[in-house]
Amino acid sequence: MNDSIYLSIQNSPRFKELVRKRERFAWILSGIMLGLYSAFILLIAYGPQLLGAKLSPGSSTTWGIPLGVGLIVAAFILTAIYVRRANGEFDALNQAVLKEVQP
Fold it and tell me: Is the pTM higher than 0.90?
């Protein structure tokens, strides 16, 4: 591609919309993950007795295990949500921008 195509892409309203939507969505998902992770770390720091409590009287598993696994699962779910939207809405916007600037 030459410089004029790059400039027309950069100045395209659809491209600006794509960048704005993608950045906002990525920040929202990142904030959710940061909040979950921070809550888990704060729980480790200020509520170790809760994480060390057994799930049931006869169990050897503590609450820390399912909460930690839940944090990992949440990361996978948030990634899947991003991929689904990226493959749908964001790819459609990207294709529209490319069609718009094709010579």
Answer: no
